[in-house]
Amino acid sequence: MKTTFKKVWRASTLAACLSMSTAWAATPADTLVIARDISAFLSLDPAEAFEVASGDSLNNLYLRLVQHDPLDFSKIIPGAAEKWETAPDGKQIVFTIRKGLKFQSGNPLTAEDAAFSLQRGILLDKQPAIILRQFGWTRDNVKERVRADGDKLILSFEKPYATDLILSALSAAIASVVDKKLVLSNEKSGDLGNGWLRTRSAGAGAYRLIEWKAKDAVVMEAFAGYQGGTAPKLKRVITRHVAEAAAQRLLLEKGDVDVASDLNPDQVQAIANKPDLKVVQIPRGNVYYLAVNTSNPKFAKPEVWQAMRWAIDYEGIAKQLFRGQYKVNQSAVASGTDGALTEQPYKLDIAKAKALLAKAGVPEGFSTSIDVMAASPYREIAQSVQSTFAQAGIKLDLKVGDPGQVVTGYRERRHEMIVFVWAPDYSDPSSTLEFFSSNTNNAPTASNKNAPWRAHWLIPQLTAKVEGARHEVDNAKRMSIYGDIQRTLRDDSPFSFIVQKVEPIAVRSNVHNYKGAVTFDSTAFHVIEKR
Question: Whole-angstrom Cα distance, residue 455 to residue 449?
């Protein structure tokens, strides 16, 4: 009976779900249908995928070593590991893998699978590997420092690390436990199964992959053997690619989808009073900022950086321009993250901006350009800044380009000024502060080409400070150091932090427990229900 149902469903319902031209009178009671722009969904391999579009899918296809409580993101709870013990010197942590866990293939999940998964992340060395490399693991030493012993996963480090930092990093997608036997059976030319796993899954998560069609849909079905939490409430979750926000709203209002993920302020306001719809506000970790290239003489003096901060209409951008979809955040670290500063010392003050420009020796201001993506909110933020900067004497020429052009220009340091975004890879503030505070080499051949390198901002002392914080095992002391680093970035850096995203997710009124938090992969489908 089960096989017959599956064949019928795949032949008819699946075909309907994957077709944008098909409209339902209402979605099935046991199925959640999400409308979302998934054009940037590039891979399903947790050692490779690093895009926002794939985050929630990976979070539900795989069981990670540890995980955030789906109803209280501030808590890290057991995942594949049932418990852990840290050495007093902070140089080792031992996880005990839960007995009886099985992958969706039916293979048992063991400590050997967990060790292989972390080793694989380092050996493949794709973009997410940066999360694991911070622990001193390399291709040469990872099999020695990440190893299984019976039901134990033993992780060793040359230097100490705070337990909270380790657990936070291991709640990221790259710490997903993959089915070693299944993955290696599909290995080709030493790729550790990467080519195969890009379009398939090999996990033990609450949902198993039925089908993924790029720029079309992701279809998942509840895994009956899931043991990472409560059993899934819904049998299926389907994410349909709907690029246009207006189309998402229409589908939601008609009942063809249960969730619309990308509505703009006008659309959110338009559905606010509809009794069959509601809006869930999710405080994301996306922080939008301005960065200048200090190799340009116009931006060589810190007084110019400081002047810029007083020439931004923070409140106007957050409350008037975007009407609540963003909130003022003047720290690199997003609010809602442990250790984030909540202070907001800056406001639009043209007089102060002009005084600082005069102190910098440019009382009449100057002309420059700002690189900006055409998409929202980049363009709107740039236009607001263009208007208020002009009042202070800084004339901005908006150079609008497609995402690829803008990102490449920023990574190659070809910008004068840019409006950009940072989203943390995991919940600990170290994820953000490493990106904004580390640079000891401005050379084109430098290996660490993060934000300060792109800004030509050489900061060996700040780099040493953030490196030292990483090895502080006392978490309270570590957070105190991170507070000092945040203030330096806020007040004395070539970056101006402006707003943080508050993501409005529009859902049908019968959808409950659709939640999320600062990371882009924090929505757990197994707790969502329709009633």
Answer: 10
Quick one: pLDDT band at residue 25, thresholds 50, 70, 90? low
**pTM (2 decimals)?**
0.86
pLDDT in tens, 353-396: 999 999 999 999 999 999 999 888 999 999 999 999 999 999 99
CATH of the domain at 228: 3.40.190.10
What CA–CA distance (Å, rounded) separates 291 from 270? 35
Distance of alpha carbon 202 from alpha carbon 35, whole angstroms: 25
Alpha-helical (H) ranges within 170-241 are 180-184, 194-197
- d(CA 436, CA 430) in angstroms, rounded, equals 10
In this structure, is residue 271 part of a structural domain?
A: no
d(CA 484, CA 132): 25
Please give the Cα distance from 200 to 210 (Å, whole number).
Answer: 9
Q: To the nearest 10°, the Cα dihedral for 45, 47, 50, 51?
A: 10
Q: Which two tokens stand for residue 311?
A: 């020439």
CA distance 219 to 209: 6
Inside any domain, residue 273: no
| Cβ neighbours of residue 526 closer than 8 Å, sequence gap 6 or more | 60, 70, 206, 207, 222, 226, 229, 230, 231, 232, 233
Residues 214 and 156 in one domain: yes
From start to end of 333-393, where are the E strands? 366-373
Band (pLDDT 50/70/90 cuts) for residue 4 is very low
Lowest mean pLDDT among 9-18, 187-196, 451-460: 9-18
Classify residue 79 as exposed, middle or buried by CB count within 10 Å of its CB (0-12, 13-18, 19+).
buried
pLDDT tens digits for range 128-157: 998 999 999 999 999 999 999 999 999 999
390 and 349 part of one domain: yes
Domain co-membership, 225 together with 290: no
SS3 call for 347: coil
Q: Which two tokens stand for residue 256?
A: 């063809």
DSSP H/E element including 451: helix 451-454
When divided into structural domains, the chain yields a total of 2
Distance CA 388, CA 116 (A): 53
Query: Is 270 a member of any domain?
Result: no
Q: Are residue 416 and residue 469 in the same domain, yes or no?
A: yes
